[in-house]
Specification:
The protein folds into three domains: 28-68 and 89-115, no CATH class; 125-286, Sandwich (Immunoglobulin-like); 297-401, no CATH class. The chain has a seven-stranded mixed sheet with strand order 10-7-3-4-5-14-13. Strands 6-12-11-8-9 form a five-stranded mixed sheet. Strands 1-2 form a two-stranded antiparallel sheet. The protein is of the alpha+beta class. The protein contains nine helices and 16 strands. The relative contact order is 0.09. Helix 2 (36-69) runs antiparallel to helix 3 (87-114). Its main location: membrane. Keywords: Cell membrane, Electron transport, Lipoprotein, Membrane, Oxidoreductase, Palmitate, Respiratory chain, Signal, Transmembrane, Transmembrane helix, Transport. Belongs to the cytochrome c oxidase subunit 2 family. The chain crosses the membrane at residues 44-68, 89-111.
Amino acid sequence: MKSPSLPMRARPMLAALSLLPLLGGCGMVVLDPAGDVARQQGDLVVISTLLMLIIIVPVMALTGWFAWKYRAANTAATYKPDWDHSTQLELLIWAVPLLIIICLGAVTWVGTHLLDPYRPLARTAPGQPVGADVKPLEVQVVALHWKWLFIYPEQGIATVNELAVPEGRPLKFRISSSSVMNSFYVPAMAGQIYAMPGMETKLHAVFNETGNYEGFSANYSGAGFSNMRFGVRSMTEAGFERWAAQAKARGTTLDRAAYLKLERPSEKEPVRRYAQVDSGLFDRIVNMCVEPGKMCMHDMMAIDQRGGMGRAGLYNVRQLSYDKFAARGTGDTASDRYIAENCSNPELLGTSLARVEDQPVNLAELTGAGLSRPGTRALSPALDSDKPASARPALTPVSITEPAS
């Protein structure tokens, strides 16, 4: 006896229904996050979707209604083969989408400015403004191949593939990369922000709930990209202090030499903690001068602003093959030479061009896109041409460092 088989039409529907249980593992973290910033961003998605459905749903419904009403078999339907215009219909067709576009534009404009990742938080939750005396917790983020480094300058500690923050306290992330572009993304906290070598981006956020979450890179960066994930822990203030004290007591030291070893490509790195961190390490990472004796980018830019170093810099025109072509951290040195640092100024490193946006700006003197007025040159405070010669720091000749043959 032959067993009964399903009709051909029912098979695709049955296959679709069989996949429904798999959706039970899907989370709604983007629309139900644990941070106020991410929640506002999720609300923008919902509002935008509803505004677009105002036009999409009626159009789809009317399409079906017109197809049914004016079908060939319906002889009672009005038949006007020469009809070509209706002012009322034209007004409806154009007015509704125009109003939706105006609403979307207003929502986008307001949301873009209020949720600017560079803008410090004005509130930690609805009805909870940030007090003037509240200091955000600064976390310096470095995207490595293929892991994440988090530096806590206030606590003097650092971690690998572990981000712990206190609940309810504003967070300020300074983000960079050691080699290629990545993207720092914690869906439960805020939207993604890019991490780029030789540059610094910012992100302000907050956690309103305690719990364990996940962060990852949202930008493909090579073979180990799929494992470039890190745990995120939102704790109470007391729990965060205990966690920081444990890291301070049990960790090792992250100095420049240790960072250069950590920077080398590796996959599936376990959680690692450092009890001490070299001062100014993140600024050196941004300025690509962690290697001892290598000139920082902000020093090069200051020299370029002065028009070079004359005869002392005559032979310093070779491209930096170490930064431009080779993968940083793949060995003791990835090129045969580099421009050596000179007259290193720790104060200049601390207020380098990577942090210029933190300095107050005199808007009365701002012209164009922050450019100097015609006929003048905007120089670094340490290299200001308006100062007398005796007040300027002396520049020593730049040397070229070559390996021993």
